[in-house]
Amino acid sequence: MQPSEEKGNAHIHHEKHIEDNIDSSSEASSDFPEGGRTANLVLLGSFLSLLGGLGYMNSIGIYQAWISTHQLHDVHKAKVGWIFGVYNAMSFFCGVQIGPIFDAQGPRWLMIAGTLLFILSFVLQSFCQAYWQFLVVIGFLAGLASSFIFIVPVSCLSHYFNRRRGTATGLAVSGGSIGGIIFPLAFEHLAVRIGYQWAVQAVGLITVVLLVAGCILLRPRLPPTPMNMSTVLPTMTILNSPAIILTAASVFFMEWAFFVGLDYLSSYSLAYGISRGLSYDMTVFLNVGSFFGRWIPGIVADRFGRFNTMIGANVLCVIALLAIWLPADGKVAVVVVFAVAFGFASGSTIGLAPVCIGELCKVENYGRTYAVIYTIASIAALTGVPIAGELIHQCDGKYWGLIVFSGVSYATSVICLVAVRWLQQR
Description:
Blueprint: H1 3-16, H2 18-22, H3 37-58, H4 60-69, H5 77-93, H6 95-105, H7 108-125, H8 131-157, H9 165-194, H10 196-217, H11 229-232, H12 242-271, H13 276-304, H14 306-325, H15 332-358, H16 366-394, H17 400-425
């Protein structure tokens, strides 16, 4: 092998194994099961939990489109957007406390709490009629429920997988994409046949069954630690290195843009005269792309580097937004292509972000680090959708401002990730 070739291979594998240096004071990589009966059952539990909980998050666009044209048809789009902005923010923000509790005590009681909150939110959502009711039930209650399911299953995987963490996490979060395919189709067909109330409750029943399975299957590998102020309180000292700060900034800009496409794609389609059924199905097309985007790049990342793959996924998001959606002008075929392409690219970032975070911290601190970074991202999740709604208003009902905003956000995320890679190579 030539010296230049050896140097190139070393460059590729430098990022892939950087966690071995970061975790040198923790467990050796060989201590992770990387498979086996218990680890695979935990992976299944994570998949089923995210199929239910993250499936709801990935279906949120169809609820926004329905509510905007039915119960809240006379409410300004930006105001309706705050319901879903609050939901997105709560899904991330509450993790700042959930992560440390997971690190100390494991997943069981946290999963049970999230499941009970989802039961309550689905029942109440089916009866909502007024703006404030949707804000409280979807924004705050369902957002709080989602925060448990967003943090715990992914954090649990970090106990069992290190070398194969990208693959395992990708397979688990692909459950959310499947939920994002099944639930919109189920809701769309049921709502026009048996009504909104029963459609919401039917989707809720499926979700709860999946979450109960997750409660049974998820279990920690590390022993619990005593419950005290130092183990369960969040701390911003997690942000103790430029690499972690830049990764947090990257996730912030990703989430600022991600929910805009997810929440407004169906509304965009309706605004451009695409049929109601096909407009709602745009969320399904997006999640079909997202399904493949959540596990294929995970396999690639374990081979060629997690941050390398993450940078590529964000570049694809920029291309999908600015080169496909921006000039689409409501053309059905182009919008469908965008939905699949953006679903694949953005799904890749959702699956890879937890893995990249895992490279920058010890396994026993993973839940806390993951939660703090996504708590910061909750500000983006809160404001992104309402900003997009206001941009529609400022652009006279057109969506080009929203699309440019999303593309620039993803481009900024790319810059942050490139800076992290530069720091890793120093």
